[in-house]
C-alpha cells in the first residue's frame, strides 16, 4: 500500500471503525482504534456504551455480506458459526440475519486478534492540530499522536462538531418500539413476506418482524413519535396487546412459538443527516482528518440501509487510501464520492420520510408533485412492468434517481385512485385505543 503517513487512529469501534481498521491493518497499516466502550465481555451481557441503537433490531443488507466476503471472510465464517444466516436471492446475498450485538462482537474479536491493530478504551475529547494539520487526538486528557485520524464515531459524534458543524438533515419521523423473542426448538416461525422476515406497511404506522441469529427475532412497531399516547407501548403487556391486535404479527407472539427474552425496548426520535467534510474552497476542514460511516450520513432505519451505506463508504475509503500517497487528496476524493454515491440516499430519505409522515398523519398521497420513492416502488404492484426499474433501487444496486423513468406511470396509477393493498389490521386510532386502554401490569 502506498502512503505518505505514519500513524492511524480510528475513533469509534462500531461497524465502520472496526471494518475500516481491520481492512487497513491487513494492508500493512498500524491502526489504533479508540472507543469509550471496553468491548464485549468474556461472559454475560454486553452493555454497549454510546450506541443507543445497539439493542434495537437490525437487518443487514446484501452489501454488508459482500463487504465482509471481500475484505474479511473469516468474520462472516465466525458470524455463521455464531448462528447468523446469510439469505440468498439467486446467486447473491440479499441479507444477513443477525443481532447487532452478535455482528459487532465477532468484528471486535477479529480486530482484537489482528497483529497490527490496537484497541484502546477511552473517550476522545477532541482532535489535536498543529499548523492546521491533524497531529492526533486527546483521549481522556492524554494525547495520542497520529497523522491520519479516521472519525468513525457515529451519529452521536461530537468531537468533530466544532470543525464540521451539524450538517443538514431533518427528523425522520420513525420511532421504533420492539421486543426480542426466541423460537423454541422445532417451533415453526410465523408468516414472512420479505428477506427481513415480515414487513407490514399500514396507512398510518408500520410493523416488522426482524429475523436474527439463533432463532431470535424482534417484533417491532413503528410510529411517528409525535403522539404521546404511543409511549405506553413501553410496557410489556401494552405492547403485546397492540401486537396481538395485528393478525399477522399476533402469530409471532403465540405462547407456543414466542419466548420473550427481553423487556420492550422503546426508541427515540431519529434524524436523517448528512455531513460533508470539505471547506468552501474544497479542501478538507482539517487536513489529516477523514470522517466515515454514520458520522457522514444517517438515514431512517425503516429501510435498513445504515450499515450497508457505512461499509460501502469504508470500502471506498480504504481503496482511496491504498491508491493515494497524499491523504488530503484521498479525503477530497472521498468526500466527492460520498456526495455522488451516499448523499442521494440521504436526500431520498428526507423526501420519502417527509411524505410518509404526512400520510401517517392522515393525509392522502400528494399528486401535485413527483411521488416519493416508496410510492413509485409500491406502484409496481399495480403495473408489474415497473418491476425492472424499481428492482435495482430496492436492492441498492441503482441510486434513487434510477426511479425517474417510472415516476410518471406511477403517478398515473395513483391518480386513477389506486392505492397499495394493506394487510388486515387496526387503523392507527384503533391501535392507539388498544394502547390507551390496556392496563400496564407492573
Ligand atoms: C433504531 C435504529 C435501527 C437501525 N436499524 C438498522 C438496520 O436494520 N440495518 C442497518 O443497516 N442499519 C440500521 N441502523 C443504522 C446503524 O445502526 C448505523 O448505520 C451503524 O451503527 C453505523 O455504524 P458506525 O460504526 O458508523 O457508528 P456507531 O455504530 O454509532 O459507532 C460509533 C462508535 O464510536 C464511539 N464513539 C463516539 N464518539 C466517541 C468518542 N468521542 N470517543 C470514543 N468513542 C466514541 C461510540 O461509542 C461507538 O462505539 C439503525 C439505526 C437505528 C438508530
From TrEMBL:
Keywords: Monooxygenase, Oxidoreductase. Gene3D superfamilies: FAD/NAD(P)-binding domain. It comes from the Bacteria. GO terms for molecular function: monooxygenase activity. InterPro entries: FAD-dep_OxRdtase, FAD/NAD-bd_sf, Flavin_halogenase, Geranylgeranyl_reductase. Residues 9-79 form the FAD dependent oxidoreductase domain. This is FAD-dependent monooxygenase. The lineage of its organism: Bacteria, Bacillati, Actinomycetota, Actinomycetes, Mycobacteriales.
Amino acid at each position: 500500500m502506498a502512503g505518505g503517513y505514519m500513524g492511524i487512529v480510528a475513533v469509534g469501534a462500531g461497524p465502520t471503525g472496526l471494518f475500516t481498521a481491520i481492512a487497513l491493518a491487513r494492508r500493512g497499516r498500524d491502526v489504533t482504534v479508540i472507543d469509550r466502550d471496553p468491548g464485549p465481555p468474556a461472559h454475560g451481557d454486553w452493555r454497549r456504551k454510546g450506541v443507543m441503537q445497539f439493542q434495537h433490531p437490525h437487518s443487514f443488507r446484501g452489501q454488508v455480506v459482500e463487504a465482509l466476503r471481500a475484505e474479511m471472510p473469516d468474520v462472516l465464517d465466525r458470524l455463521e458459526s455464531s448462528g447468523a444466516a446469510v439469505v440468498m436471492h439467486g446467486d447473491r446475498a440479499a441479507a444477513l440475519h443477525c443481532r447487532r450485538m452478535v455482528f459487532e462482537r465477532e468484528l471486535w474479536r477479529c480486530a482484537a486478534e489482528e497483529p497490527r491493530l490496537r484497541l484502546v478504551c477511552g473517550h476522545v475529547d477532541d482532535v489535536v492540530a498543529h499548523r492546521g494539520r491533524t497531529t492526533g487526538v486527546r483521549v481522556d486528557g492524554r494525547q495520542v499522536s497520529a497523522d491520519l485520524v479516521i472519525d468513525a464515531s457515529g451519529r452521536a459524534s461530537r468531537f468533530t462538531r466544532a470543525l464540521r458543524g451539524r450538517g443538514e438533515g431533518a427528523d425522520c419521523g420513525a420511532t421504533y418500539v420492539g421486543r426480542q423473542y426466541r423460537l423454541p426448538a422445532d417451533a415453526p416461525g410465523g408468516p414472512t413476506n420479505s428477506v427481513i422476515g415480515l414487513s407490514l406497511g399500514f396507512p398510518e404506522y408500520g410493523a416488522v418482524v426482524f429475523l436474527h441469529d439463533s432463532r431470535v427475532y424482534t417484533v417491532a412497531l413503528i410510529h411517528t413519535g409525535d403522539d404521546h399516547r404511543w409511549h405506553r407501548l413501553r410496557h410489556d403487556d401494552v405492547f403485546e396487546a397492540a401486537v396481538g391486535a395485528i393478525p399477522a404479527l399476533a402469530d409471532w407472539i403465540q405462547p407456543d412459538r414466542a419466548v420473550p427474552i427481553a423487556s420492550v425496548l422503546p426508541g427515540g426520535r431519529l434524524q436523517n443527516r448528512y455531513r460533508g467534510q470539505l471547506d468552501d474552497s474544497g479542501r478538507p476542514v482539517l487536513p489529516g482528518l477523514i470522517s466515515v460511516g454514520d458520522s457522514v450520513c444517517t438515514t431512517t432505519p425503516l429501510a435498513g440501509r445504515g450499515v450497508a451505506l457505512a461499509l460501502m463508504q469504508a470500502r471506498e475509503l480504504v481503496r482511496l487510501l491504498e491508491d493515494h500517497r497524499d491523504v488530503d487528496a484521498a479525503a477530497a476524493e472521498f468526500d466527492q464520492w460520498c456526495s455522488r454515491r451516499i448523499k442521494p440516499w440521504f436526500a431520498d430519505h428526507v423526501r420519502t420520510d417527509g411524505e410518509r409522515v404526512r400520510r401517517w398523519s392522515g393525509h392522502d398521497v400528494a399528486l401535485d408533485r413527483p411521488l416519493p420513492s416508496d410510492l413509485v416502488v409500491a406502484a409496481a404492484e399495480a403495473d408489474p412492468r415497473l418491476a425492472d426499474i424499481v428492482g435495482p433501487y430496492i436492492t441498492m444496486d441503482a441510486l434513487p434517481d434510477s426511479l425517474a423513468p417510472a415516476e410518471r406511470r406511477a403517478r398515473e396509477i395513483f391518480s386513477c385512485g389506486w392505492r397499495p393493498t394493506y394487510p388486515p389490521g387496526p387503523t392507527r386510532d384503533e391501535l392507539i385505543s388498544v394502547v390507551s386502554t390496556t392496563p400496564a401490569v407492573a
